Records
---
Amino acid sequence: MTVEKITANPVLQQLPPDLLRERLPRHVAVIMDGNGRWAKQRGLPRIMGHRRGTDTLKDILRCCKDWGIPALTAYAFSTENWGRPLEEVDFLMTLFERVVRRELREMMEEDVQIRFVGDLDALPKSLHLEIDRAMQQTSQNKSIQFTVATNYGGRQEILHACREIAAKVQQGLLNPEDIDESLFEHHLSTAGICDPDLMIRTSGEMRISNFLLWQVAYAELYVTDTLWPDFDRTEMHRALAAYQQRERRFGKV
Ligand code: IPE
Ligand code: IPE
Ligand code: MG
């Protein structure tokens, strides 16, 4: 079935039949960009785009679960996003807190395991508490591994891992020659989650913006001009169809 025919089906509850289940990505990462532009196009304040963006995320999470993608990671706030106007940052922190509190029950019902990565200590205390509670309560859930990158920076994550490893060497717990990719990955905040197979960025920007720098080494990149609040199951279908067309060589021939 073509993408156009699928579009005629408004629900897309199940994996579209043209996608091969055995070739689905095991982990999709999304840079949810374009909320501000979406709002601007409608003459609304930027924050309305962020609010709408959370609805999109909720549906894309459910879509991944419905279609059998076992891990989704979403970039919600970068270490550089503190540089935005205070009002917008405050709105986002309050929004995150409200959404985590509001959605916890449903995440339990739907068996979603949520995890937050990034420098969580620097977040407002009340948000940090909600995050801890959600991570703890959902830790045994199995149907999908949902990771939210909040106050996350790929470079900071790598530096943090280096510091931890250096301290272990200094204490005599590790030899420098023990440091390999596997050991390094164990010191990243994403330890235990496989690397993303597919990284999606909405709103057309062709950059990584400090997201999962180590982990995307061999991810397939997919960029769409669609703004994040408009990214829906039809768009997800397009991204997955494009992914399934790719030949992943991993440096081989
Ligand atoms: C992404 O949308 C959300 C966050 C970075 C928090 P933007 O707010 O970056 O939207 P644009 O890029 O300005 O349109
Ligand atoms: C990346 O979007 C960060 C998130 C989506 C949270 P930005 O809008 O912050 O990225 P730049 O500034 O366009 O690189
Ligand atoms: Mg942006």
---
Amino acid sequence: MALLQNHIAVVTGAASGIGRAIASGYAREGARVVLLDVNDKAASEVAKEIRDGSGKADSFALDVTRREDCVAVARQIADKVGQVSILVNNAGIARRNGMLGAREAVISDWEDIIAINLTGVFNVTHAFLPPLRANKGRIVNIGSIQSFVHLKTPSSPAYTASKHGVLGFTKALAAELGKDGVRVNAIGPGFIETPLNEKVRAANPGLVQVFMDHTPLGRAGKPEDIVGPAIFLASDLSSYVSGSIVMVDGGYRTI
Ligand code: NAP
């Protein structure tokens, strides 16, 4: 039997990159997937692609920074699709400016990154808590190698703080919701080739090299590399795993 049969899985930021791959992978494992993204046109195209491949998929527009919209979309999904049992908090942005740039840029990076990468995770999780608690749900948050490190990896304080926050939120929630049978885990991707870093890859091969020099497997990841671990954490294969982060980084954190 497929690993996610009879589950309804919500994936944020599902129109692109890692979220898109996870949504497609979950659909292949029998889940009915609900794609949420600020780019609703792209999300509906991915949903159609999944349906054309015989999967079950719906999409809704959602900006995860808009708390009341998160509540409204959760209601709409409960009415139109059903009881959500899996949530993947994946929507995120990355900017690599340090703390020493122009004041306005530093401040707007901080506000945007924290609003989407961290407060967005809170907003969506809070909105979907009722069905997740009622269904012994599973939450998978997308962290990063930046949930741990900064020095060797070019990143911004805001992005690093947001991904440390995602890991802290994952642990706190796992501790609080365990009594309801809800499992909460994170995935820590390394350098994954997606539209998020397309420009950087083209313009700054030196930066890609910094990542590769610290990646024992010697290659960048693909969105598909995240899918197996994401299925594992959402399925009964991980029934006694909670509060963990599964690094999917080619071994980055070992050296
Ligand atoms: P991506 O290809 O840019 O996909 C992210 C998706 O999220 C896009 O469709 C984006 O829409 C959407 N999004 C942005 N802001 C949103 C908002 N406020 N509300 C709803 N959706 C929003 O990026 P990715 O590389 O797949 O990244 C997915 C997650 O993995 C992020 O949390 C990222 O931090 C994390 N991650 C990525 C890497 C990597 O190397 N790629 C490594 C570690 C962690 P727009 O394109 O219209 O903005």
---
Amino acid sequence: MSEPITNPVFQRAAFLSAAPELAAAPEDSGYEVAFAGRSNAGKSSAINAICHQRGLARTSKTPGRTQQLIFFRLDDERRLVDLPGYGFAKVSLSIKQRWQQLMERYLERRASLKGLIVVMDIRHPMTDIDQQMIDWGVAAELPLLLLLTKADKLKRGAAASSLAQVRKAISNAPVPIQVLAFSSVSRIGLSQAQDQVSHWLGL
Ligand code: GTP
Ligand code: MG
């Protein structure tokens, strides 16, 4: 199988900064695309796959470790953002409230944010908290892509039925929402995801 032809700007992606609060984020100019999702869903792996880099965004088997906005620079005016994972059980209420406030502020106020990718495990998508994230994205009038990742773990029929279930769940949304089966391992959906990100970044 030949490698998809991607914009070389992805390969030049590099860590820029980590921000524990919105005030610490890089200047709000240019274009940004953010990745949200439950802890362990595969956000960091998706960023690495899209950028063709193994160790760009740190992946981990211990969910919910990073509670910061992680910014990756593609060029002077373009960034990808790895948002803190959600849905992990063993954290205090105050950490959950901090997370919620950080997310809401970021999604609502960040002018350079041009699109939101909600990463969900294709084997158990659309939990309550995923729905909440989608609702915030819709409220902030952001274009949305739901990335159903770890598709390599399902047979084709099961993946198709999960995709159909998610499409049905969002069919009443006030704006069209895209849904894509994806895998950082087998690269299912990778070129479509790259195309969407490139489009949002004005590439
Ligand atoms: P947090 O940063 O903790 O919120 O997690 P995350 O959403 O960034 O998940 P991460 O990318 O670290 O992946 C979590 C685990 O799932 C790791 O062990 C990855 O190797 C694995 N994983 C991620 N994507 C895929 C995929 O497409 N297929 C398979 N089989 N495993 C994956
Ligand atoms: Mg991560």
